[in-house]
Amino acid sequence: MACVGYHASHEQFAPSRLLALVRQAETAGFDTAMCSDHFHPWSRAQGHSGYAWSWLGAAMAVTRLPFGVVTSPVGRYHPAVVAQKAATLAEMHRGRFWMAVGSGEALNEAITGEPWPGKPQRNQRLLEAVEVMRALWAGEEVDHDGSFAVRNAKLYTRPSEPPRLLVAALSEDTARWGAAWADGLITVNQQPDRLRALVSAFREGGGDGKPMYLQVKLSYAADDAQALRGAYEQWRTNVLGAEASEELRTPQQFEAEALRVSAAQVADSVRVSCDPQRHVAWLQQDLALGFEQLYLHNVNQDQSRFIDVFGSAVLPALR
After folding, report:
1. Considering only CA atoms, which of 162, 211, 147, 202 is closest in space to residue 184?
2. Per residue, what are the HEC states of the chain?
3. Confidence at residue 58, expressed as pLDDT on a 0 to 100 scale
4. Cross-strand bridge partners of residue 218
5. Mean pLDDT rounded to a whole number for the chain
6. What confidence category does residue 245 fall into, taking pLDDT thresholds of 50, 70 and 90?
7. Dihedrals phi, psi of 165, to nearest 5 degrees
8. 200: how many CB neighbours lie within 10 A of its CB?
9. Within 10 Å of residue 291's Cβ, how many Cβ atoms?
10. What percent of the chain has pLDDT over 70?
11. Which of 11, 105, 109, 128 is catalytic?
12. Cα–chain-centroid distance for residue 211?
């Protein structure tokens, strides 16, 4: 049976609004939820950036849903502190919390003023962070020298089972690299051939048999024109390609680059349709690729309509 979740976008909505939306999603029949972890939004039109970890504690307390977060555990955070945050959530809500980790984006991580390393260096420090967090979750006292330092760190409050740790991958190279050490994969929807290649790379790199999650970018509204308009207004800064996330540091810089993005380009990256059955067909294709959990991110502002319609017309068709 398909497990379908609601994606809570901290870049687009205030934390109080997101709290109401995940409660609505649970009532509508969504099985699970996940959220982003941003310091800045991608554009000023999105306009929010609540602190994901505070919000997760509240959201998990007022629902019964499992939750996950996509984060960079090193950059603006220290890995030992991320390990403590994750352990606290996992101890309070046994079996309900997972974490996906990536090498980060300049938009969020460069705020500290520290040098922003290239991708190979960021991957190295990410792997170090994963090793440190796992050692802390195992109850070890950790000292570490490398991309960052840890001294005499030990977690005294730990969950009975550590949280599942996924690799967040947008490319075949990252999926293949992360397959060796991650408990699973999370990625975003792409054109079918590219998504199929990414899945193959993960499996070939050591991920065969490990769980795979998919974050689905879509825009649902009363008609197709409204759905496309909402996607363009809110999400055109997010279709610039990986190189933009490598270098751009402010919402204003993303907005300037997005001036050349057309509505057609947005529709190439976001599934735009007012027809729930069209979305069902897309999601069935995702499940056929082997994804066991789908997290639906309606990128426009009309969240309540999306939750209610998908709860009644889309989720039952996938079960």
Report:
1. 211
2. CCEEEEEECCCCCCHHHHHHHHHHHHHHCCCEEEECCCCCCCCCCCCCCCCHHHHHHHHHHHCCCCEEEEECCCCCCCHHHHHHHHHHHHHHCCCCEEEEECCCCHHHHHHHCCCCCCHHHHHHHHHHHHHHHHHHHCCCCEEECCCCCEEEECCCCCCCCCCEEEEECCCHHHHHHHHCCCCEEEEECCCHHHHHHHHHHHHHHHHCCCCEEEEEEEECCCCHHHHHHHHHHHHHHHCCCHHHHHHCCCHHHHHHHHCCCCHHHHHHHCEECCCHHHHHHHHHHHHHCCCCEEEEEECCCCHHHHHHHHHHHHCHHHC
3. 98
4. 271, 298
5. 97
6. confident
7. -120, 110
8. 15
9. 25
10. 100
11. 105
12. 15
CA distance 256 to 80: 36
pLDDT at 232: 98
Domains of the chain listed by start with CATH number: 3-318 (3.20.20.30)
Q: Looking at 38, 40, 93, 297, which residue is catalytic? A: 38
Task: Please say if 255 is a catalytic residue.
Answer: no
Q: Provide the greatest CA pair distance for the chain.
A: 58
Mean pLDDT along residues 205-209 = 97
Looking up tokens 């792997």 gives 127
State percent of the chain over pLDDT 90. Answer: 97
- Which two structure tokens, joined as six digits, stand for 30? 């969504």
224-241: average pLDDT: 96
pTM: 0.97
Task: Report the b/e string of 103-138 with b at 16+ CB within 10 A.
Answer: bbbbbbbbeeeeebbeeeebbebbbbbbebbebbbe
Is 40 in the active site? no
Please choose, from the candidates 128, 157, 125, 153, the residue with its C-alpha nearest in 3D space to the C-alpha of residue 141: 153
User: Six-digit token pair at 16?
Assistant: 């109080």
What is the per-residue pLDDT for 224? Answer: 98
